[in-house]
């Protein structure tokens, strides 16, 4: 996310820090470069103009320029204004005190609306709620089938019909069913088009009148940049929206949609899609995103991801195993799986401060993790527990069984022993070097 913009802003701020004493013309020169960087990131030009003006008003005062660290003060102002541009504070989905909460999902074809509906349902289910999905996109039978398939995958009921042709009738029946089943929330996947047209807007307005939804969420593809912003504005003007879900944020190196949409529509980004997996959806935190844009990382999100993947009791068991020097290949496989559950490794590393520089010098091959698991799976129970018994003939058998080479097996065993040594040194409070157990 925001890779190109982060690189440019870091270069601008590095130049600013190198000046020591700042003059008004230095700030103006830096703001000119920031303006160009934001425009190149596909941020709406009116948004950029207003943003630069707000920063300039706060940054060129005598109090700032004559402070002990003027460059840091300017960066702080940019950070604060970026937070405001992104929405100021985290906006959550409003839940009705009188269930069911009705959430109407709107957007164009290709934005990921149907998949996002299922992701949202899974999110609510994990919170202990009883969500129900409604397949109200009657224009495309494939959309109904897709939602039914996703519903089975996450074990959430999907109200649908191939006979009903009027979405209003379907929504009325869905609401009755939701009350009977005590479902909450009800997430309605509505029709979309390749572009905004009057027929679509009339249908959505009719559905809105039937549902009387508590939330209308516009789903947009972040990678379409200003197109997403303009379409969101059209939807808001025609039917009214309460918030935005940006999909494909993990593939958006520019960030123009995220930086423009709140200012243009007046409605906050509530959630972001961060990958193709059904659990790849997160709350949108403006302050954390501003940190990442400025190359400061996002440690809080990293901790939250780790907490989702790791159970505290399991972590205590693992700690006890390490202390007793009983860490096995099965434990290594388990830890690799948990780490991969947190998402793509690049995404995890990008949350660390300064990671954008670090990531440029390494190439991450996730296939190596698959190879490591295949090698471990080809070992016997005794071999995984006690690698010392793995002699030459066993290594040949393991390589054949895992579809790898003896060299791959030898490398993994060597790295495993290095990791065990590292754990022993850590236990005794000694310094250690990290073994190359991971594929970078």
Automatic annotation (TrEMBL):
It is an enzyme of class 3 (hydrolase). InterPro entries: AAA+_ATPase (IPR003593), P-loop_NTPase (IPR027417), Signal_recog_part_SRP54_M_sf (IPR036891), Signal_recog_particl_SRP54_hlx (IPR013822), Signal_recog_particle_SRP54_M (IPR004125), SRP (IPR004780), SRP54 (IPR022941), SRP54_GTPase_dom (IPR000897). One of its GO terms (biological process) is SRP-dependent cotranslational protein targeting to membrane. SMART domains: AAA, SRP54, SRP54_N. It is found in: Cytoplasm. Keywords: Coiled coil, Cytoplasm, GTP-binding, Hydrolase, Nucleotide-binding, Ribonucleoprotein, RNA-binding, Signal recognition particle. Residues 268-281 form the SRP54-type proteins GTP-binding domain. Its main location: cytoplasm. It catalyses: GTP + H2O = GDP + phosphate + H(+). Residues 303-342 form a coiled coil. GTP binds at residues 107-114, 189-193, 247-250. GO terms for cellular component: signal recognition particle. SUPFAM superfamilies: P-loop containing nucleoside triphosphate hydrolases, Signal peptide-binding domain. The keyword Nucleotide-binding applies. GO terms for molecular function: 7S RNA binding; GTP binding; GTPase activity. Part of the signal recognition particle protein translocation system, which is composed of SRP and FtsY. Involved in targeting and insertion of nascent membrane proteins into the cytoplasmic membrane. Binds to the hydrophobic signal sequence of the ribosome-nascent chain (RNC) as it emerges from the ribosomes. The SRP-RNC complex is then targeted to the cytoplasmic membrane where it interacts with the SRP receptor FtsY. Belongs to the GTP-binding SRP family. SRP54 subfamily. Composed of three domains: the N-terminal N domain, which is responsible for interactions with the ribosome, the central G domain, which binds GTP, and the C-terminal M domain, which binds the RNA and the signal sequence of the RNC. This is Signal recognition particle protein. The lineage of its organism: Bacteria, Pseudomonadati, Nitrospirota, Thermodesulfovibrionia, Thermodesulfovibrionales.
